[in-house]
Each structure stands twice: as structure tokens, then as C-alpha cells.
WD repeat-containing protein 44
Amino acid sequence: GINLVDEVHPGEQTIKLKASNSHKGPYEFEKIQHVQEFLEHEGPIWCMKFSSCGRLLATAGQDRVLRIWVLRDAFQFFQDIKTKYDSEKVSPTPSQESLVSKHSIENSCNNSNTNNNQEYMNQEDSDDETKSIFMPKPLCKYKGHTSDLLDVSWSKNYFILSSSMDKTVRLWHISRKECLCCF
């Protein structure tokens, strides 16, 4: 199994907040600011979910692509995870190989080679990008579903389930470029 240690903010306490169920709204927010837009998707985004650590955001929708966004200050940590497992050339088990979509391998994680990593890191910061919370491009893109994605779910160790109108659920991991399993 994959055992990951959180080293982005060692020793810091993570504070989790949950909206109260006793107040159904409408909610009033003060000092709302437009900080960042995700322009990668074509068509509506039907689902957005944060990872349990709060530093990754999965977005999915009509364009059938699952995108994983990373906070700017956590980029290097998650890029190192991808690089580590990529260099080990971990491959699926034979039973999983038949389930791995060739399409998902060819069009999966961005920035899997060094040249792309440098380009990703050296992007000039515009005024909008300097105040943005997430990196301007997704850490990973996963393709394989043949219809709209409706929901995603994270595990604590960065596995992701995506469900689609194509009546399938796919299992992914941020360290891997391909679908691990299709249900």
C-alpha cells in the first residue's frame, strides 16, 4: 500500500470547520472577494471536493475529465510524490491492466516530465495569479469516463473515486497516471 507522511506543514494543527446544520440559510457573507477562476473545464463543473488535508481540490463535470488542483504552497510536496512513484515505474497488477483505459494513460497527469515541470513552475505570475490560492494549471488530469462526471470522493491517503453518468466508478491515485480500477 501507499503510505504517505504529511510534510507540507509539519507540526501544525489542521483545523476543520463544518457548517452548522441548525441554520439552513440563507447565509450572509461579508467581504467576499473573487480570488481565482478554474478555466480548464469545458462546460459546467458538476462537482468540487477538497481532499481531507484541504490542500487538493478535485473538480469534475460535463467535459468528462477529473482535474486535481493543488494549493500553491503545497505544490512541491505533491509534485515530489508524483515524481517518486513515476521514477519507481510502479505498474498495475495484471488484473488491473485489463481495466486501465489506454485513453486514460495517454491523457492523464500533466507535468510528468522534467521539461513540463520547469514550464509549470516558471510561469510568470500575473496580478491575478499572485493572489490565486491554487496553481494555475491542474496537478493531474484523468480521462477515461465516457459521460459527465457527477461526484468524486477522496480517501485520506489521496485515492479518488469518480462516478459518472456512464454508470462506472473509477479509482485513481494522485501518484499514478492511469485508472487503477473501474467498477
Summary: Residues 75-87 form the longest helix (13 residues). DSSP finds five helices and eight strands in the chain. Confidence is low (pLDDT under 50) at residues 91-125.
